[in-house]
Amino acid sequence: MPTAPQQPPQGRYGRPAGADARTDRRLKKLGAVLGALLTAGVVWAGWSHVTQNPVSGELTGFQVLSDTEVEASIQVRKPAGTAALCTVRSQAVDGLEVGRAEFRFEDEADQVHRAVTLKTIGRATTAELLGCTTAPD
Question: Model-level pTM?
C-alpha cells in the first residue's frame, strides 16, 4: 500500500517560496537605485575634476646637465592670459628625491613649450612632471 509523501512541519525550514520572491524583487530594486547613485557620483566627480583645472602639462623630455642640474622640457596648455604653476621633481638611481621645484608659466599664449632647469642635491637620473595648476595671483 503506497503512502502519501510526508510534509515537513510548518515553519520549520524557513519561509514559504513566495516570500523569497518578494525579497528578491526588493533587493533588485535597492541594488538598481544604489548602482545608479554610485554611477552618478563617479560621473560628477570626474566632470568636476576635468572642469575645475583648465591647466594641463606634459614632460616632453629631460637631460641631466651635471651632478646638480637637470633640464626638463615642459609643454603647458592653459587659457590664454592665465598663469600656470607646474611642479617638477627629480630622483636619483636609488629612487631618492634629489630635487623638486615649481615653475611659473605666465606667457600670454594658450600653449607654452619651455625648458626649465631644476637644481638637485645629487646626481639625478629622472625628471618627472607632478602636475600643473592655475597659479595664484
Answer: 0.63
